[in-house]
Automatic annotation (TrEMBL):
Compartments it resides in: Nucleus
Ranges of biased composition (kind: Low complexity): 27-40
Protein family: Belongs to the replication factor A protein 2 family.
GO MF term (any one): single-stranded DNA binding
GO CC terms of this entry: chromosome, telomeric region; DNA replication factor A complex; RNA polymerase I complex; site of double-strand break
Residue ranges occupied by any Replication protein A C-terminal domain in the UniProt entry: 169-280
Keywords for this protein: DNA replication, DNA-binding, Nucleus
Official protein name in the record: Replication protein A C-terminal domain-containing protein
Family matches, as InterPro entries: NA-bd_OB-fold, RFA2-like, Rfa2/RPA32, RPA_C, WH-like_DNA-bd_sf, WH_DNA-bd_sf
Length: 287
């Protein structure tokens, strides 16, 4: 399971399927050797990021190549994005990539004697890629020094990365799930959130479920009475992560299948429920 500086070990929503590509290395441990070994361990820290986080990263001093995000130092990082432009030169390949939060450019230096051998040579415009590297700044322009870039073959990796980057961001800004404070929370005392994650229900303290339900109810908007009945029923239904099926909802609410489908469409449109194992099974999206 992925581990990040300060003790985050992928505790948000259980383990993921990212494997080695999504993992990281612990830094800042109180155990282990000192001196050069600590420096080596620190420099091997890998953190999942979005492009917006990289563009907004705090630079220690101009062109220092040392950056902090959410109050924590960032050395090596990884992200997932779509290629917008590829320019192959004799000594490097220049990429422009976009992950939906921002656009950034990067360079992958190549060995002229080993041309056309690496995965970077197969990448085309509009491909999705996984990138590993370092943030760099020159003349106030951010770019990426790419160490590894490879095409994505399993598109679940895109969603997994965004979830993982959000989980690590929450760890540093709000503390480990189920705890109050911790992580890098002190670095963000005003509660500002660069990834626009809702605050409701986070932290697992008393009243957390009530906050989650209130946050969802506040997003219902002008839905019908049937949709509100459906939402209230699903909040208390023992469906777990698999959700509640159409037939169970119809029986429990005394509504026809057509009425349940119409109400579910309203709630889906408001973004407060989502489909799970099939198109007729839904679960409440917790905030």
């Amino acid at each position: 399971m992925a581990s990040y500086g300060g003790g985050y070990k992928g505790g948000y929503g259980g383990g993921g399927g990212g494997g080695d590509d999504a993992g990281g290395f612990v830094y800042g441990s109180q155990q282990g050797s000192q001196g050069g070994n600590q420096k080596s361990q620190r420099n091997e820290t890998l953190r999942p990021l979005t492009i917006k986080q990289m563009l907004d990263a705090e630079e220690t001093y101009p062109e220092s190549a040392e950056f902090r995000i959410d109050g924590a130092p960032v050395f090596q990082m990884t992200f997932v994005a779509q290629v917008r432009q590829v320019n192959r030169l004799q000594t490097n390949i220049h990429f422009k990539v976009d992950d939906g939060t921002g656009v950034i450019e990067g360079k992958k230096f190549i060995d002229a004697d080993k041309s056309d051998e690496g995965p970077e040579y197969t990448i085309q415009t509009d491909d999705y890629v996984r990138v590993y590297g370092h943030i760099r700044s020159f003349n106030n322009n951010r770019h990426i020094a790419i160490q590894v870039i490879r095409p994505i073959t399993d598109y679940n990796e895109i969603h997994y990365h965004l979830l993982e980057a959000t989980a690590v961001h929450l760890y540093y800004t709000k503390g480990q799930l189920g705890q109050q404070g911790g992580g890098g929370a002190a670095a963000n005392p005003a509660g500002g959130d660069s990834m626009f994650v809702d605050d409701g229900g986070y932290g697992g303290g008393a009243g957390g479920d009530a906050n989650q339900h209130a946050a969802g109810a506040a997003k219902l908007g002008n839905v019908s009475a049937a949709a509100r009945r459906l939402y209230d029923f699903m909040l208390n239904a023992p469906g777990g992560n698999e959700g509640v099926h159409l037939q169970e909802l119809s029986k429990g609410l005394g509504m026809t299948a057509r009425e349940v489908l119409a109400a579910a469409d309203e709630l889906l449109g408001q973004g407060v429920i989502y489909t799970t194992i099939d198109d007729e099974t839904w679960a409440v999206l917790e905030y």
